[in-house]
Design brief:
Helix content is about 75%, strand content about 0%. Helix 2 packs across helix 7. The longest helix is centred in the middle third of the chain and has 24 residues. The N and C termini lie far apart (about 85 Å). The relative contact order is 0.09.
C-alpha cells in the first residue's frame, strides 16, 4: 500500500480535530467553568443583589452542580471578593483597547468615556455589582477603585508631562482623578434615570462632558 504523503497526514488530522471540535485541556475546561461562574454571578447579582444571590441561584444560572462551585471558590464571599475586580479590569481593558493609538489628552478621554458607557450599556448588571460591593464586598470595592485610580493617575501624569494639563501641579492629580471618575459615575446615574435609557448615552451628554473638560482643564486663553 502506498504511503500517504506527510502533508496529507497532517491535513487529515487537522480536519478530524476540526470535525470533532477542539478538545479542551483540563486547565482550559477549568478556566471556562470558573469564568462561567463569574459571569452567572454578575447576572444574578445584577438582578437580585448580593444578599439574595445564593449559591443555588448562581450554579443554576451557570448550569453546574452546587458541589462543583466549591472546586473553584471556597465560599460565596470568596466569589464576591473576586467579582468586581474581575469585571472591572475587563472594562478597563475595553477602554485601553479603544484608546490604543489615540493622541492627546482630550481625544483619549473622550474615547475612554465612550468605552465606559459602551461597556455599561452592554453589561447593565455592572452598575449594581459596583455599587453594592462597597457594603457587601468591601475588599473587592477597594481593589477595583485602586486599579481605576492608579490607571487614571498614570494617564494624567503623561498628559501633564506632555504639557496638556500643565495648569495642575502633580500633587493635584489625585484629586483630579477622583473628580473625573466621579463625573463618569454620576453621568451614568443620570443616564439610568432617563426614560429612554435603552437607547444608550445620548451624544449631547458626551458633548457636554467634553465641553466641561476642555473649559476647566484646557490651557488659559
Amino acid at each position: 500500500m502506498k504511503e500517504m504523503d506527510p502533508f496529507m497526514q497532517v491535513t487529515m488530522k487537522k480536519t478530524r480535530r476540526e470535525l470533532v471540535g477542539a478538545r479542551l485541556t483540563r486547565n482550559e475546561r477549568a478556566a471556562r467553568t470558573r469564568e462561567q461562574i463569574l459571569v452567572s454571578t454578575a447576572h444574578v447579582v445584577g438582578e437580585f443583589g448580593y444578599r439574595d444571590s445564593s449559591i443555588q441561584r448562581i450554579t443554576s444560572d451557570a448550569g453546574i452542580a452546587q458541589g462543583t462551585f466549591y472546586l473553584y471558590f471556597e465560599s460565596r464571599q470568596a466569589l464576591f471578593d473576586e467579582l468586581l475586580p474581575h469585571f472591572g479590569v475587563q472594562m478597563l481593558e475595553r477602554v485601553r483597547e479603544r484608546a490604543h493609538g489615540a493622541k492627546g489628552f482630550f481625544d483619549v478621554e473622550e474615547i475612554g468615556v465612550r468605552a465606559v458607557f459602551e461597556y455599561l450599556y452592554e453589561n447593565p448588571w455592572f452598575w449594581r455589582v459596583l455599587n453594592e460591593a462597597e457594603i457587601e464586598a468591601p475588599a473587592a470595592w477597594a481593589q477595583h477603585h485602586n486599579e481605576v485610580t492608579s490607571r487614571y493617575m498614570k494617564f494624567l501624569k503623561r498628559a501633564r508631562a506632555d504639557g496638556e494639563i500643565s495648569t495642575y501641579g502633580e500633587s493635584e492629580l489625585g484629586t483630579l482623578a477622583y473628580l473625573l471618575i466621579a463625573a463618569r459615575d454620576y453621568l451614568y446615574v443620570y443616564h439610568l434615570n432617563r426614560p429612554k435609557r435603552s437607547e444608550g448615552i445620548p451624544e449631547s451628554v458626551i458633548k457636554t462632558y467634553m465641553h466641561f473638560l476642555k473649559h476647566g482643564l484646557g490651557p488659559s486663553a
